[in-house]
Amino acid sequence: MFTKRKTVMCVVCVACFMFGLNMYSRQAENLDTKQKGQSALEDKRHESKIFSRDSTVKISRNEILNAKTILKNDSVKQHVKRPVNKQKHRFKQNEQLTQDLFIFRMEDHRNISGVNRPCSARHQELWRTCMHIRNNKEKCDGETCLCYNGGWWFEKPRFTNFSRLSNDILDQERNLLFDPPIDDVKKLPNPRKSKLQLVAPNAKNIYSLGDVINVRVDLYNSFGDVMTRGGDDVRAWMVGGQEGNKRVSGEVNDLKNGSYEVSFQTWWGGQNKIHVALSHERELLATHFRWRRQFFSLFLHRAVHKYQNKTIYTICGEYPELPNQNSICDFTKANGGLPWFCGRPNIPELQCGDLEHVEMFDAINIPITEPEFQVSTRNTYKMMINNNQKIQVNIGVNPRDIPEKNALPTCSMIPREMTWNISKMTSPTGYYKGETWIPRDCYIPHTKENLMTCFNNLSIILSGDSTIRQWYSTLKMFTNCKQTTQKWTKTKWFDNSHCVINRLNFSLSWFCHNLPFVLDTFNKTTKHFNHKSVRSILEEVPSSGRYLLVIHFFVHRARIHHSHFRREAIQVKMALRDHLNKNPDLMVAFKGFHAFYEGGCPDIYDYAGVYFFEILKEELREFWSRVWYINYWDMTIATEHNYYKHLPEPEIWQQLRLLFGYICK
């Protein structure tokens, strides 16, 4: 009797299980059909509406990534590990690109913690205060209301428009689309385990000038297994010479199998040592691309409003789908045509135009696995590959060691198109001799003593972020020009600045680029932000007079999906079409991207400069013959002193020296 009853119960259980499985399959099929129909509909939307709220792909609750935040002892703890079916992540390269694969949502059972960037004491204090209010249900006052009442700090992550982003896939990104999330740091390349060796045809320790030194880098993981895939960000440079003060970057070739070949030109004699660093693993690059596909931007700003002695905050960003903002203000026109949106204050008396200013707030709550957190928040991205081998080079004479006037043309004679024609950003365009940069294809006749002659009847306009603000500070100190705008009360100044030397008819200006930026004030009269777009600057340039405009967008754009940078490049292209011809003495140059290894924050990385350069080359192809691109990538790899994104003063001067080598006759 007992056996029969047990048998009946088993049959019933099996039937219930099969019924539930059948219902689940039908729901999944319906959901998949609905998603495909929605994606097809979104693909037909016009490009001009890509930032419209109506163009957002509808994501069901089951599709939302399960980011669970554990708040205990004022810190984020990891969930208990659960088994993950890794086979689900092993997609084939020829598999059709669908929304799920492109954005790559993790399953609900995957171990995830919500992590904001642990970058500053202010952030940590705000985080602790926010958690305390949340746990004790106390009354919120001040900026913590933004994370508590707004709820964005604890919300599940949002997803961006699939059809919008899938139309702009970079070559670097395409190869990483199907990579799974990082689940074990020990499976990643380990620089301490990796190896270097000289390779044929010139595998020897003694070289002659003119030879090419080839070194192979073989990457191994922490288990001692050789890596069998490429895609890592490997960088190399050589240091030495007779005085031991020459430095040059190497050209890295990815062999696509876990090995890399590095080539060096022998431009001087003496003892040299080769250095190789692993900056970003393939898996980390795939993670960065995926985050930007998922959330579009990894950082949020806040709008500041004043009402009856109270400060009201709302969230701002480059997209209208802002977290917990029921009504949105569109400031795109006020931001020079670049998309910018802020939440509308919940006080009826306050309108969108009552905005005081916009300032940086904090990183979004990135859902992240514990291994991803370890890799993306390390202190430095310069992980040296062990190497005690010294490469000796015969001492000889080479005209490129110390360029002579008769050997190389002056840099001002180099066609502007040549400055864009760089096959790889790491191709060495020169080398350092002490603290002086020596270009490969030309020489710079100017020194600090005679450079002032170039500034006669010249107006220099710098447009960009805090790294180009360093240019303004260095030039202002060098020329001793008189400040005509507000005096700086601190080093980190975030407002437009201007200075002049009347006797030379010389002026120097710095305009902060459009939002996103650290701070931008809203002009309630003009209904525009104070920072200027490149178009606004070009519109104000007179039809006569000698002008130099230097443009730079980098660090603040690195937090955002690259489609935003492309949109900005297109805007610059349209502005150049409209205004470059109106003044025959107008010169335009792009300040190139530089390498840096500053870590700790998962939202900024210098590798964005690699694909930003490719976007600029593509979008500004028609202006190569009229606009300079000043390449600083291999210069900053060779220098070895570029940990921070803000470079030291000697490096700033060498950047300016190279710029004026092209500009000044």
Describe this structure in words.
This protein has 665 residues and is α+β, with helices and mostly antiparallel strands. It has a domain at 411-663: SGNH hydrolase (Rossmann fold, 3-Layer(aba) Sandwich), CATH 3.40.50. Helix content is 26%, strand content 22%. A hairpin with a 4-residue loop joins strand 9 (251-254) and strand 10. The protein starts with a helix and ends with a helix.
Rg: 28 Å
Helix content: 25-40%
* Beta-strand content bin: 15-25%
The biggest beta sheet is recorded as: 8 strands, mixed
CATH topology of the domain at 411-663: Rossmann fold
CATH architecture of the domain at 411-663: 3-Layer(aba) Sandwich
Count of separate DSSP helical elements: 14
Structural class: alpha+beta
Question: Which consecutive residue ranges, at least 5 long each, have pLDDT under 50?
Answer: 1-6, 24-95, 106-122, 148-155
Please give the CATH class of the domain at 411-663.
Alpha Beta
Which word captures the global form? globular
Mean pLDDT: 78
Assembly annotation: single chain
CATH superfamily of the domain at 411-663: SGNH hydrolase
N/C terminus separation: 105 Å
- What is the count of β-strands? 30
